[in-house]
Amino acid sequence: MRATRDFVTQALAREELLPNKNLGQNFCVDEGVLKRLAAALPLDSRTVLEIGPGLGGLTEQLLAAGARVCAVEKDGRLYDFLRRDLVNDRLTLIHGDCLKTDYGFLPPDFVAAGNLPYCITADIVTMLLSLRPAGMLLMVQKEAADRFFAKPSQKNYGPVAMVSQLFYSASLLGEVPPGAYVPPPTVTSALVKLEARCDGPEESPKSLLKFAAACLRMRRKTLYNNLTGTPDLKGVLESMGLPADVRGEALTPEQLLTLYRRLSVH
After folding, report:
1. Count of C-beta atoms within a 10 Å radius of residue 64
2. Contact status, residue 112 vs residue 136, Cβ threshold 8 Å
3. Do the bridges between strand 181-182 and strand 27-28 make them parallel or antiparallel, or are there none, so unpaired?
4. Is the Cβ–Cβ distance between 93 and 83 less than 8 Å?
5. How far apart are CA 249 and CA 45, in angstroms?
6. How open is the CA angle 144-106-145, to the nearest 5 degrees?
7. Which residues are CB-contacts of 257 (< 8 A; sequence separation ≥ 6)?
8. Using an 8 Å Cβ cutoff, are 159 and 216 in contact?
9. How would you classify residue 204: left for phi > 0, otherwise alpha for psi between -120 and 50, otherwise beta?
C-alpha cells in the first residue's frame, strides 16, 4: 500500500527526494482517506484525470476502483518514479504542467481527481470547471473547500462558488488533519465531491467564470461600476427586480446566469 507513512518516508529516502514546497508536495499517508475519496463516485471503466499523482497514493485507489487514470505530474523526479514503480495498463502518465496541458483527448464523461497543491488550488479548480468534467473528487485546503459552499455576500463567495453551484452539486466528505500528511501542512484539509447537475446550463463554464470575475472585479463597488460601458445594464437590472446599486457579490448563481443571458442578448 502506497498511502502509508512507511512507504512514503522510505520512497523519499530511497529516491533521495525532498518534498518541493513550491509545488505543494504533501503526501497523504492515510489510506482510509484516499479510499473514501475514490469511492465517492462510481469509477469502474471511467476515465479519471488525476492532477499531481505524487507518489501514487490516490492513483492506487483510483485504479483499484476500476478507473482508467490519466495522471499529470509536473515534477520530473516523481514522474520518473511512477513510471518505474506504478505500472498498470489502465494508467497513463503525463509529464507536464496541469494548467498548460491540452485535454482534448478526454472523453465527455471523465472525472477529475487530485490532492491539489494549496498554492495554486484556485487556478486548478478554475481550469477544471472550464473543462466541465462529469464529477470531481478533490482534496483541498479546508478554506478552499468552503468556497464551493459559500453564499452570496459572504467573504469567500466568488466566481468559483457562483459557477460551480450552477453546474455541480457539492458534498463535503470530511476533514483531513495535518498529521495525515508527510510532511504535515500547517492547515486542515477537506475532501470534496462534486457531481454534475442534470439541469446545468448550456453556457460555457469558462465564459461564466470570466463574467463572474468581471462582476466581482472590485467587491465593494456596485455591479454597475464593475460593468461600466455595458449597454442597457440598468434596464436589465430593473427587469430582474434588482436595485441599481446592487453589488456583484449579492447575486445568486441563478441571478448571475440570468444577467449573463440577458446582457448577451442586448
Report:
1. 13
2. yes
3. antiparallel
4. yes
5. 40
6. 10
7. 166, 201, 203, 208
8. yes
9. beta
Whether the model pTM is above 0.85 = yes
Task: Read off the DSSP letter of residue 104.
Answer: T
Q: Number of C-alpha atoms within 13 angstroms, CB side, residue 209?
A: 17
Side chain identity at 112, as an amino acid letter? A
Measured torsion, CA atoms of residues 51, 57, 63, 69, in degrees rounded to the nearest 10? 20
pLDDT at position 22: 81
Given a contact cutoff of 8 angstroms between Cβ atoms, the answer to whether 175 and 145 are in contact is: no
Distance from C-alpha of 183 to C-alpha of 5, rounded to nearest angstrom: 10
Distance between CA atoms of residues 87 and 81, nearest Å: 10
In three-state form (DSSP H/G/I as H, E/B as E, the rest C), the secondary structure along 107-168 is CCCCEEEEECCHHHHHHHHHHHHHHCCCEEEEEEEHHHHHHCCCCCCCCCCCHHHHHHHHHE
Residue entry with cell 448550456: 202
Q: Which three cell numbers stand for residue 40?
A: 465517492
Ordered by where they begin, the domains of the chain are 5-196 (3.40.50.150), 205-265 (1.10.8.100)
Residues facing 113 on adjacent strands: 50, 137
Q: How far apart are CA 58 and CA 89, in angstroms?
A: 17
CA-to-CA dists, residue 99 to 43, 53, 90, angstroms? 24, 15, 23
Residue spans of the chain under pLDDT 50: 266
CA dihedral (243, 244, 250, 255) in degrees, to 10, reads 80
Q: In angstroms, what CA-CA distances link 12 with 73, 80, 81, 89, 198? A: 16, 13, 10, 25, 43
